[in-house]
Amino acid sequence: MSWISDYRYTCLQKWALQILHSTGRIPNHIAFVMDGNRRFARSKQLDKIEGHSRGFSKLADVLRWCVDLGIKEVTTFAFSIENFKRSNEEVEGLFNLAREKFAKLLEETDRLDEHGIRIRVIGNILLLPEDLQRHIATAMLRTEHNDKLFLNIAFAYTSRDEMTQAVESILKSDETSDDEPLHPSDINERLLEECLYTRHSPPPDMVFRTSGETRLSDFMMWQLSSSVLYFTDVLWPQITIWNFLASIVAYQCDRCRMERFKSGERLHSTQLAKAGEFYSLRVQKFLHRIDANRRKLLIALASN
Amino acid sequence: MMMQFIYQLLGQLLIICIAAFDLLQQLWLRLHALASRSYDYWQCDQRSLLSSALSGLEKLPKHLVLVVGPDDCYVDVALLKRIFSYAQIVGIPYLSVYDTRTQGNGYVDLSLFCQLDEKRERCYHWPSSSSKHAKEQKVIQNGHKATQNGTSNGYASNGTHQRQLQVYQISRADCHALIADVCHELYESRKSVQVQAMLEERQKLTNGISAMLNQRLGFVVPEPELGIVFSRQTCTYGLLPWHVRFTEFHTHRSGSYFDAKSFAQVLYKYARCEQRWGK
């Protein structure tokens, strides 16, 4: 199963897609909480891992729909740090599935290049088995020059861990460098935001969660303050293009009403950047070091 | 080219249809709200409705958070008092209010009708212990307790619903900015033994940040388990990113009437949901 499916649209689906696309009110960034794989497997009397595998197939369909609708960035919640509490059998099964899918991804990088898809894994990947770390790092490095669709996969991720990691990187900022240290007055929300895993991504315009749960399960809590939250009762492996298009229509309805709040947020962010000397050489050098260290880590993991 | 034009035309038509539907729905909700308010005024016994609803619930949240969206113009002191009374009846001990509106644009200041805790700066009590309303409330509640039959879950069964509610007013400065503030403080003392100990292990740092945030918020309460968003769309508006990671959000569309039945429905939905905590 490929990362981007060869989904065949019916005429009606094509028209619906075109009509929505022509409105120009398409979200730039959608985050998906792919919930309900195990419940789907239970309802169909399948093995849990088969449920997760069907979930992945659905992700390939969803990516296809996103590409065709002109969505620029997709973030998916694949594996939470909390999921380590599941049985060893299930966790190992999920890792095997991830190994298989990343190996497949590395085989079909030409296809990803063709669509301009860049893969970014966000999360504490050092918590994962070494071979999986290697696959992930290689996939990220291999697709780093693509820029048409960004696919962020949250793996070994929780938002609280991400925020802690951001604080940690600021606290350790002067340990490994001779550059001028940060001034305490540089530290504000704007700087912290730039230290998150998602530092090169805009906040999601919409968060789409399946399976009827109406919580966020520690997913992108910092980033989604102005995102439209869309909850649907359908289980992830069962979502259809119509469910997806319904969420886009719902977003289009809510978008205008959110615009004022969003512009207020942007203004606040600009004011913070100014107040905290965000564009000073000192801060920019620090952020550059974060990028360089993350890339160094990926290279080290890929060559393990 | 022709097809493109037709698609654009249909797209615009779709947007107009959605806007018209939205307007009609809003009008209908206001009409319904007016009728419901009159009905409640004349006959509905909200207390008995809530106490009967309570008997069917398997769990109750300990901490409820109300999020008022910037576009809402229907949440006022009267509605908040009503919701506080519902929470008190069912036995929810802690309640937070996050009002994203600005002063003069509908923002409700809790100090207008709640009593500030003498020991804790950010904590309020409702109803005020000195108010006549509080005394009346107690008498009624005692009566309510006597007639309550078969209520076995949550706080309703152990009598704590007679207590005053602990209410917290959350502001924008308590959300992302507070985490930055904690980071700022840690950075200034980064060479200290305490901070260096936190940096040895990420979990220690997480626990340290949690403790510092709670101290600043004056929170000696559990994280919010249930959130009601009063807005036309579901959004957290940046509410406490550290604390609401497992909060169940329910949206009450602005303009529709919020009464005991609406509150009970939210509680039912909350009671039905299963928290798996990652398992």
List strands and helices in order, with pairings.
The complex is a heterodimer of chains A (304) and B (279).
Chain A: H1 11-22, E1 29-33, H2 37-43, H3 48-69, E2 73-80, H4 88-107, H5 109-115, E3 117-122, H6 130-142, E4 149-157, H7 159-171, H8 189-194, E5 206-209, E6 228-231, H9 241-275, H10 281-302
Parallel strand pairs in A: 1-2, 1-5, 2-4, 3-4, 5-6
Chain B: H1 2-42, H2 46-54, E1 63-68, H3 77-90, E2 94-99, E3 115-116, E4 123-126, H4 132-147, E5 165-170, H5 176-188, H6 193-198, H7 202-217, E6 226-231, E7 248-253, H8 260-272
Parallel strand pairs in B: 1-2, 1-6, 2-5, 6-7
Antiparallel strand pairs in B: 3-4, 4-5
Describe the structure.
- The complex is a heterodimer of chains A (304) and B (279).
- Helices cover 52% and strands 12% of the residues of chain A.
- Chain A is of the alpha/beta class.
- By secondary structure, chain B is of the alpha/beta class.
- Chain B has two domains: 1-43; 46-272, Undecaprenyl pyrophosphate synthetase (3-Layer(aba) Sandwich).
- Chain B contains eight helices and seven strands; from the N terminus they run ααβαβββαβαααββα.
- Chain B has helices at residues 2-42, 46-54, 77-90, 132-147, 176-188, 193-198, 202-217, 260-272; strands at 63-68, 94-99, 115-116, 123-126, 165-170, 226-231, 248-253.
- In chain B, strands 3-4-5-2-1-6-7 form a seven-stranded mixed sheet.
- In chain B, helix 2 (46-54) packs parallel to helix 8 and helix 5 (176-188) packs across helix 7.
- The chains are: A alpha/beta (304), B alpha/beta (279).
- Chains A and B meet through helix 1, helix 7, helix 8, strand 6 and helix 9 of A and helix 1, helix 5, helix 7 and strand 7 of B.
User: Main beta sheet of chain A, described?
Assistant: 6 strands, parallel
Strand order, largest beta sheet of chain B: 3-4-5-2-1-6-7
> How many structural domains in the coordinates of chain A?
1
Order of helices and strands of chain B: HHEHEEEHEHHHEEH
Count of domain modules of chain B: 2
**What value does the Rg of chain B take, in angstroms?**
22 Å
**Judging by the overall fold, what is the CATH architecture of the largest domain in chain B?**
3-Layer(aba) Sandwich
